[in-house]
Amino acid sequence: MTVARHRPGRLCNDRVPASSEVLLSALDRPLSRVLRDVTSLINSSVDLETTLQHLVDAACQHDAWSMAAVMSIDQADGNAVVVTRHDPSQLTKSYRNRWTLATSPSLIALTRNDPVIIRDAQESIEFPGYREEAIQRGYRTVVVLPLGCRDMEDRAMVLSVQSRDVVDLSAADLAFLQTIVHLGAIAVDKAHRLRAEHAAAAQLQNALAAHSTLMHQVLSDGSVASAASMVETFLPNAIVVVDLTANLVVAGRSPKPDLIDTDRWREEMDDCMSRQFLRLARDISDQAGLEMRKLYLNCGGHHLNLPAAVEPLVVDGKTVGALIVFSLDANFGDLDHLLLQSARFALSVQLMRSHLRFQTESQTSSELFMEIVSGNWRNVDDLTARARRLGIDVNATARLVAIGLPETVPEKAKTIPELHRSIMRLAGQLAPQATAAALGEIILCRIPDAPRDADTVVKTFVRKLIEETQWLIGTKPIIVAGKTCSSIHDYPQAWLECERMIRLAVRFNRTGLLAPQDFGPFPLLLSAADSKEVRSFVDIAIGAVVRHDEAHATDYIRTLTVFLEHGCRSQACADAMELHVTTLRYRLNRIQELFGIEIDSPERRFALELAIRLNETIAREQPV
Predict the structure, then answer these.
(1) What secondary structure does DSSP assign to 483-546, as a single string?
(2) pLDDT band at 620 (very low <50, low <70, confident <90, very high)
(3) Helices marked H in 113-170 — which ranges?
């Protein structure tokens, strides 16, 4: 293995510089024209394959070289692989295209970054593989030069040229080859850049086309499921779309196809995983952007730990859904993020329609039922006609079911609309004509009477409602099944009874399906709470105490309440209020001195407790 110096016939391992000064002194004018032609040939290439072919063709423009080839170095496989060659003679069709790196000059050329020269391959014993092929194909001198660039698979490349005769390389010959290699490396880099630019342009075009297609889809009143299916065709990753406006989860292809196929993934989503994704979407902040999460799922007997990007879908400042994209990695480039934002925007537009439709329907039904249950009708026929236009026959037999929330539920203003959506969905599944309206903090559901088993239908609805609400807010709701209404005139009284029952349930911290008998005489007493006599009784009994507490920030009413609840036992009451028993007795004496309240007989204790209870329920009674 040898490398030519300046003196012909002398071989060594020194590299000869290929500067322009050496070229001008070593090359004659005809060879300069050859270099010009070579440069034009290489520069005319636009893709890597053509560039490499032009490179080996250009190397053979010099009279000394008859054949040439470009080889990629596959170090993982331990071979040098021929990717293109130039052999005008084509003496044989059985070329050797793989060379073992351990005995190949290609790896030596790359390692030393110097040309490797085999003066006579037919006589060389250092590279027996070359010797065998040299005899077969009839070449003698071989020069292997590192190209200084890489192929499409990121493998280093070398240029190998062969001559029919033994050639003693001059400095000009070696400079010529090095110039060819340098020009080739420039052309290869250009081909890589052009390919990257074409790929980027194609991706941008695809992104714009995808955005246009998505917007056309959502503007043509398509469904969330169809929009989600289209989004997945544009993104390289598996996705899940959550629609909170309909409590819907749309699953795309499986994020782990090696473990779970797509059909099984979608079945598991419908059966048991949808609520986890609904919860994930509900927990996202309205102001959140793209969030990276780790999702732990139990799917088909497999415990999955899936990295995912969660993109909230926001309408009017409220999160109405989410786009979950699985396994974002380093290959998820800028254009993929652009597609992701297009998908987010398109899905948000789609959900905006559902959100606005729900808001409009909710407001319309709430206004209608507010007027119906108020009993203050200007024109009954007009009200009945308005209800009929919404598909509601108020003179057909129907059952009212009122749903409220216990005092412990936080952020009721946010929870009520979510619960309203769920109730509308459940009611729609129960009966097409069933409707629900939000009246303040109470949701009133109207269920048309079934021809048979009406009670069973209501019980089924209540059971599903309790299960849904408990999952949604973590606690049972308050549910009151009202009386059957046969005409519009029955609604005000039925609503009033339901409303009072829910206020009592809130007062006594009761949940679930409740009936009047669950509260003893209080529903009856509360039904009379609007009368002047009842209000006068409350004012005479404890009115002065209430006003004193408000004016002086005292705690006399609470003291009386706790004292009565503990059977008028001073020590038990003091412990409950965390007071010393002497302090409690002083406070009770003070109440007696100021207001003349006596609790020395069962009748007076009952009257006082009744006044306190009525005062609490009246105070909680707020117009809807």
Answers:
(1) EEESSGGGHHHHHHHHHHHHHHHHHTT--EEE-GGGGTTHHHHHHTTTSHHHHHHHIIIIIHHH
(2) low
(3) 128-137
**Which pairing describes strands 239-243 and 156-162: parallel, antiparallel, or unpaired?**
unpaired
> 369 near 437, Cβ under 8 Å?
yes
Residues 6+ apart with CB under 8 A from 507: 616, 617, 620
The pLDDT of residue 488: 92
Dihedral sign (CA 532, 536, 537, 539) = positive
CA distance 209 to 30: 53
Distance CA 464, CA 420 (A): 14
3-state secondary structure of 69: strand
In the chain, the largest separation of any two C-alpha atoms, in whole Å, equals 133
Which residue has tokens 């509900």?
Answer: 282
Of 117-126, 268-277, 502-511, 547-556, the range with the highest mean pLDDT is 547-556
| Cα–Cα distance, 417 to 361 (Å, whole number) | 12
- Using CA atoms, how far apart are residues 25 and 8, in angstroms rounded to an integer? 16
Res 106: pLDDT: 85
Helix (H) and strand (E) counts in the chain: 21, 18
Query: How do residues 552-576 score in pLDDT, each as one tens digit?
Result: 889 999 999 999 888 888 899 999 9
Q: Is 31 exposed, middle or buried (0-12, 13-18, 19+ CB in 10 A)?
A: middle
Say if residue 624's pLDDT is above 60. no
Contact between residue 129 and residue 103 where contact means Cβ atoms under 8 Å apart: yes
596-601 LR contacts (CB < 8 Å, sep 24+): 597/542, 597/545, 597/560, 599/560, 599/563, 599/564, 599/568
Question: What is the distance of C-alpha 268 from the center of its chain?
Answer: 18
And the tokens for 287? Answer: 């102001």
Q: What is the 3-state secondary structure of 199-225?
A: HHHHHHHHHHHHHHHHHHHHHCCCCHH
Is-contact 420 369, C-beta < 8 A?
A: no
pLDDT above 70 (res 332): no
End-to-end CA distance of the chain: 99
Domains of the chain: 3-194 (3.30.450.40), 221-354 (3.30.450.40), 375-527 (3.30.70.270), 532-620 (1.10.10.2840)
Question: For 317-327, what is each residue's pLDDT tens digit?
Answer: 888 888 988 87
Return the percentage of the chain with pLDDT > 90, whole number: 9
Edge-to-edge strands of the sheet including 116-118?
A: 98-100, 79-86, 67-74, 156-162, 142-150, 116-118
